[in-house]
């Protein structure tokens, strides 16, 4: 479909055109991106090399941190570099690649959050059946399904994007390539494609959010039958998950479940879930999880000790 377009590149307008604000954006988002990568890679390394984390919850947390790292990398580096560029040019192929990566790793995060909710539900509501239900084979199959489901979702987005003819202008009023801003540039009636977008991305966001919140309500209600210590531990874990779910799904639902109308706050909402959420997730899971913090201290203390001995 690309050869039928007169547009071979797009110009991103970014978050602002003010030179001073662009420098501030560079500094702020560079710090956010470095913090995101350090936080998520610390979690990945800790879970990978520590013998403490043998439960499915941390198996899924590993893949959540991996998805967050990749999701942030598909957006943040481009935004940081463009903050210092006079003209933010992105080729057609680069734009389509970014659309694919954005939706692939975003959808991966959705699936992993659902699996984490299932894991907590079984652990709290059916503790005697937990070893049988959440076997390692089941967990691995779930992750494979997450990869496959994310790929199918992303391919659908790319097919929709490739069907859009572009004949000018080529100015994208956004800081990244996504279907919503691309629809505004298409030289065709995009009503049907927007309906498909809402029924795909919008349905995934809204339905997953509802399912997750219902599951956590059920989990919290079932805690009445647990001991005070059990309730405290379960509440700590579930609260972390609920915060992440709200931070992840709130902005996504706002962006993908409405008609193709541009609002002034769209860019800031997008910044929150593409840059802010991957940065906050490791902080939420480590600051509220004593087990993760202790394992990190032990693991990195051992590594530093070994390095000093050498």
UniProtKB/TrEMBL annotation:
Keywords: Cell membrane, G-protein coupled receptor, Membrane, Olfaction, Receptor, Sensory transduction, Transducer, Transmembrane, Transmembrane helix. InterPro entries: GPCR_Rhodpsn, GPCR_Rhodpsn_7TM, Olfact_rcpt, Olfactory_Receptors. It is a multi-pass membrane protein. GO terms for cellular component: plasma membrane. CDD domains: 7tmA_OR4A-like (cd15939). Its main location: membrane. Residues 39-285 form the G-protein coupled receptors family 1 profile domain. It is found in: Cell membrane; Membrane. GO terms for molecular function: G protein-coupled receptor activity; olfactory receptor activity. The chain crosses the membrane at residues 24-45, 57-80, 100-118, 138-162, 201-223, 235-256, 268-287. It holds the Pfam family 7tm_4. Belongs to the G-protein coupled receptor 1 family. Putative odorant or sperm cell receptor. PANTHER family: OLFACTORY RECEPTOR. This is Olfactory receptor. It comes from Odobenus rosmarus divergens (Pacific walrus). The lineage of its organism: Eukaryota, Metazoa, Chordata, Craniata, Vertebrata. The gene is LOC101374968.
